[in-house]
Design a protein that fits this description.
The protein has helices at 10-22, 34-43, 72-81, 94-106, 123-132, 201-225, 231-234, 238-259, 261-264, 267-277, 286-290, 293-296, 304-312, 318-327, 336-348, 350-358, 365-378, and strands at 2-6, 26-31, 45-51, 56-62, 65-68, 84-87, 112-116, 144-151, 155-159, 169-172, 178-181, 195-198, 387-389, 394-395. The protein is α/β, with parallel strands linked by helices and 396 residues long. It folds into 2 domains: 2-199, NAD(P)-binding Rossmann-like Domain (Rossmann fold, 3-Layer(aba) Sandwich); 202-395, N-(1-d-carboxylethyl)-l-norvaline Dehydrogenase, domain 2, CATH 1.10.1040.10. Strand 3 and strand 4 (56-62) form a beta hairpin. Helix 8 packs across helix 14 (318-327). The model has no long low-confidence stretch (mean pLDDT 96).
Length: 396
């Protein structure tokens, strides 16, 4: 069996490649970085280090090779021969790989499943739409399955020098399950031990996005304001930890109202998430988790989307809205998207920005609270200041 993975980054290598190689697939990466392509072809392997804060394991992923995406013909040939295609390129880059996938599908007469390992609500449908736009009208696209996935593992680092001859090391936490949309698959369905086939993929997506990802974002954005650099440090701050728990609880109640208490999980589920946040061994940075605030503040994404669902369930999402307000303060100079957000707030004002970015009316219940919390946070803020107290919004 052959698996073609488009993308050789943290998720492509540290999660998808790791699991597919263990499932018996011959793994080929399609990558844009010629240095990484040369490294994988020269060394033929890499390592995956998994740590839970107490123990760690390290394993080798061997027998891999790579193709430079600049060589279009070679990439199409690899995709055309694959038994499974995976993308791990980031949501913004799906459109750019669609023509390659489309060219490969033109040459196939046999069915194929394509998994999008992207942090996107419906990555499968998004890629399918992009691929369809590259194909002639009437092309039998239904013979191919396009499924989004929910990835459980956080892969936070790539260690090593790809110009050298030592295997790269990808560092993450141990969870290895991923969820696929069973309604989007075609036969034959890949057999992978840690794959969960869901009939209601939207429910699984909402649970992860509105509980785990909302808690992660709350920790990151409040942690940024309080001067922390890593998630494991921020979650040890009693004020932040309390805010994270309350935000996830608000979201959990929203999920429970729609999908049931058992599916939403209880305190044990939240504790498991907190333990993952506290894992210092993976050095998960605030900047990584907080980056791209435009996407994370969207109306159906982790903070505002969770707040809407909680409100529908009769729970006022106070902590989720405070986290969203903190996200509107995020101004890491290393994040160009954060700079664009701050510029929009300065130029057009907070009220129009909230409406455009989050789909929230400034005079509505959610909008009023969000803007009020943002004003409290920014009232005495200045460059390089540190938030000392969430309770009294006190800045150094």
């Amino acid at each position: 069996m052959k698996a073609a993975i488009i993308g050789s980054g943290r998720i492509g290598c540290g999660f998808a490649g790791h699991l597919l190689a263990a499932a018996g697939y011959e793994v080929v990466f399609l990558a844009r970085n010629p240095v990484m392509v040369s490294h994988l072809n020269r060394v033929g392997r890499y390592r995956v280090r998994l740590a839970n804060g107490r123990d760690q394991t390290e394993s080798s992923v061997s027998g891999v090779r790579a193709v430079d995406m600049a060589d279009r013909a070679a990439c199409v040939a690899v995709l055309a021969e694959a038994d499974l295609i995976v993308t791990a390129v980031g949501p913004a880059n799906l459109a750019s790989v669609a023509p390659l996938v489309a060219d490969a599908l033109r040459t196939r007469s046999t069915p194929l499943n394509i998994f999008t390992f992207e942090n996107l609500a419906d990555g499968g449908a998004h890629l399918r739409s992009e691929v369809a736009a590259c194909l002639p009208e009437g092309f039998p696209l239904d013979r191919f399955g396009f499924s989004g996935t929910l990835v459980s593992r956080a892969v936070t680092q790539r260690l090593g020098d790809p110009s050298g001859d030592e295997p790269m090391v990808f560092v993450g936490d141990p969870p290895d399950s991923f969820v696929v949309d069973g309604t989007r698959l075609v036969a034959p369905v890949p057999v992978i031990a840690s794959m969960i086939i869901a009939d209601n993929f939207a429910a699984w997506m909402r649970r992860k996005l509105y509980i785990f990802s909302a808690g992660h974002a709350t920790c990151a954005y409040l942690g940024y304001l309080k001067g922390y650099r890593y998630i494991h440090s921020a979650i040890r701050d009693s004020e932040i930890r309390s805010a994270v728990v309350e935000a996830m609880t608000e979201a959990q109640k929203g999920i429970a109202a729609v999908y049931g208490v058992a599916f939403a999980g209880g305190e044990a589920h939240l504790q498991e998430i907190l333990d993952r946040f506290a894992n210092a061994a993976i050095n998960d940075s605030i900047s990584r988790v907080a980056r791209d605030p435009f996407r994370k503040l969207a109306s159906e994404d982790r903070l505002v989307g969770a707040a809407r669902l909680a409100l529908e369930a009769g729970v006022y999402p106070e902590q989720l809205l405070r986290a969203a307000a903190a996200a509107y303060c995020f101004s890491d100079p290393a994040d160009a998207v954060a700079g664009e957000l701050q510029k929009e707030i300065r130029v057009t004002g907070m009220r129009p920005t909230v409406r455009r970015v989050s789909g929230v009316r400034a005079n509505g219940r959610l909008g009023r609270t969000l803007i009020k919390r943002w004003r409290q946070l920014t009232r005495h803020w200045h460059a390089d200041s540190v938030l000392l107290s969430l309770a009294q919004v006190h800045w150094a």
